[in-house]
Amino acid sequence: MFAHLPPYAGDPILSLMESYQRDARADKVNLGIGVYADGAGVIPVLPSVRAVEVEDHFNSAPCTYLPMEGHTGYRQAVAQLLFGPELPDQNHLAIIQTLGGSGALKVGADLIARFFPQPQIWVPDPTWDNHIGIFEGAGFGVQRYPYYDADKKGLAFDALLSKLESLEAGSVVLLHPCCHNPTGIDPDRGQWTQIIEVLERRALLPFFDLAYQGFAASLEQDVWPVRECVRRGIAFFLSNSFSKIFSLYGERVGALSVFCPQDGQANNVLGQLKLTVRRNYSSPPLHGALIVARVLSDAHLRQQWEGEVNQMRERVHGMRERLHAGLAKVLPEYNFGFLLRQNGMFGYTGLSAAQVERLREQHGVYAVSSGRICVAGLNPGNVDKVCLAMAEVIRG
Ligand code: LMR
Description:
By secondary structure, the protein is α/β, with parallel strands linked by helices. The chain has 14 helices and 13 strands. The radius of gyration is 21 Å and the shape is globular.
């Protein structure tokens, strides 16, 4: 019956987790998956989240089905966080709760594929591997636009812009508003303005994927490109995730927003999103959404959580500086200044797949074969070892 099913080669990021867990070396270091660990190497339960979880009424609430579109208070609080003063009214915004950011990408992809036949999406080169998997899986043709300039170790801005200029009206373009995964390289404000002008002029459909709001500069500044599209009346899709910024990976808490600048469309878009959810998984889970809704809507908890996001961002930034300084010491002939121009959880080291393999095999340091490391997995106890290991594989 199943003889024709080929074996699965495994996911380039998630399989690394499994190998890391099987590794018996006591000094192994996990810089593979994008998960934030604190200075002691522990994935934190944020104090704001813990405060909600011990509330009596929280624990005694019945665990009923949520509606297809998710928890109302959650959707309102998330919309407020994402759009702030640019929050569109409900006639111009369709927002649903989803199973993390991946669930939002999948529901958005399914919706587009149903109503825009033979869809094409343009993704940055490189991008998160699963962008390609999710959109191909939903029937899209996936094409790449230039993003990373390996020689400059920076943004290939001119090539990016001229590729966007050449796309057909209605093409879907995937964009990372901040903390680009895997490179950590983001356009600056002036470059974003030029990108958005092209999106507008060429009538392209942006699909923003926001998994790291608050991890580049601040919760407000990191969503500037999204809010600028609202100000200009550009329709878009936006997936967002609370896995990292609430440290709620396993709860699968996210949202999908569709901004509908033309009157009279948001309601139908919302209806079709609900239908897409019903056909996929019926309705989203409750627990994580209740936590996020409570934290975002309570002034005290909200302030506390914002402080926690700032702390996580600053710790990662501090480790990025430690990594840079450590590498400069062990490899003085190389310039690692590019690491300091990258944002968020990831460092794009320029290591080859063969060097990454040696890091893992010989030193127990796990990274993605593209050369991406999760800087949020570094801490004062492992950063020197990582620098020495990187120096050894770079020198060959
Ligand atoms: C990552 O890029 O490591 C994270 O987004 C986790 C994942 O699902 O790949």
